[in-house]
Design a protein that fits this description.
Belongs to the MYG1 family. Pfam families: MYG1_exonuc. This is Metal-dependent protein hydrolase. The structure is a single chain. The chain is built from 11 helices and 14 strands. The chain has about 375 residues and is of the alpha/beta class. The protein has 2 domains: about 180 residues, no CATH class; about 110 residues, no CATH class. β10, α9 and β11 form a beta-alpha-beta unit. α5 crosses α7. The longest helix is centred in the middle third of the chain and has 42 residues.
Amino acid sequence: MWAITRGGFYQKLLNFPKTISRPLMATSNLIRVSSPAYSTGSPNNVPSKRVGTHSGSFHCDEALGCFMICLTTKFSNSEIVRTRDPKVLEGFDAVLDVGGVYDPSRDRYDHHQKGFEEVFGHGFNTKLSSAGLVYKHFGKEIIAKELQLGEDHPNVQRLFLAIYKNFMEAIDAIDNGINQFDTDKPPRYVNNTNLSSRVGRLNLDWMDPNQSPEKENEAFQQAMALAGSEFLDSVRFHAKSWLPARSIVMECIADRYDTDPSGEIMVLKRFTPWKLHIFELEEEMKVDPPIKYVLYEDDRGKRWRVQAVAISPDRFESRKPLPAQWRGLTDDELSKEAGIPGCIFVHISGFTGGNQTYEGALAMARTALKILSI
């Protein structure tokens, strides 16, 4: 069994970060900068270890990396110290995104040095950022704690890989300047809504007259809280929604020949976000031929939908859109054209349609397969 604990990471988020300090560049004496919201003065909150990262402008990777490493047992209740002084960094228990060293045996997690080519593995080839390095070495522990399972449990491993694919890899790629698509063409639109962009906007504005270390550290606290909350949201989503959905879709794929002898029509026993899983599971389960249509009941209208499967997770085009002669038609006109009673609609693009009954939706899918195979 796995579960999300009520007092788990979200309580830590409310209490984190406790302290961020920054040493003066000319001396090893530390200037402690505490946010009143996190400063308690309790002896129980005295930092046991210090985690260093660089001062100055920050990015999503070190903000998230600092947040994640403080969720581990080894670095729980650590103090985050921001400096570029190598002598000061040398004395810290862990160093992220600065120092020019990647050595997990000494908890050094920088990725800027010449010759660094570390990747996550498991089929992923994107060069890691400091966040990716922390996740690679501590991600299983963080997920296992939240699920209250051992690190060797299969569900921990599944989420470890899924969260990297669906959350962490983009942060690594953006920080390392890796384009999402292999093309020299300019993007069709600008997207500044990703987490890395939003963290970046928390840096002090160049027009702000107050460029003090104290204000900079306050901004970094906000960056850690933003990146950390989205990371925890991703863990929660994958544990509470992604994992159960995966199990349901796997069962439905296994039962597809009970629906139609072609094996190209799948019925969802209950509605679930199947698009997140069907491509990955088809590959894992060696599904051939690939599934063309998915049937599911629309809970709002208690009617049935037939949806064409896209050619890939990031494309709108369908493997086999519903027949062109059906598209844009509704109700009786559609039922007459298709020769199937109870039809409700077919979208103008052919990616989805509806029928009053399961039998009607299944007939639409079967007929579509026959028409499109001629």
